[in-house]
Amino acid sequence: MLLIALTILLVAAFVVDQFATWRERIPKRLYLPSPRLGWTLRPGLRRRIGLQREGRLVWQNDIAINAHGFNDRDWQPKTAGRRRVLVMGDSIVEARQVARTTNFVARAEAQLTAGGRGHELLNIGVAGWSVDSVLNYFQQAARHLEADVVVLGLFVGNDLLEGDYETFRYLFAYAWDCRRYDKPAFGLRGDALVRWNFPAWRNLPARLFSVELYERSRSFRRGYQRFNRVMEKRRNGSNRLRASGVSYNLHMERGKGTAFFYKQTEAQVDALAEECRRAGCRFGIMLEPNFPLFYPLDGGADPSSKGYQEYHRDLEHYREMRRRFDPKYPVLSLLEPLQQAGRGITFRPDDPHLNEAGHELVGGLLADFVTRLDGA
Question: Which of 21, 71, 117, 233 is most buried, by the most CB atoms less than 10 A from its CB?
Answer without folding.
Answer: 71
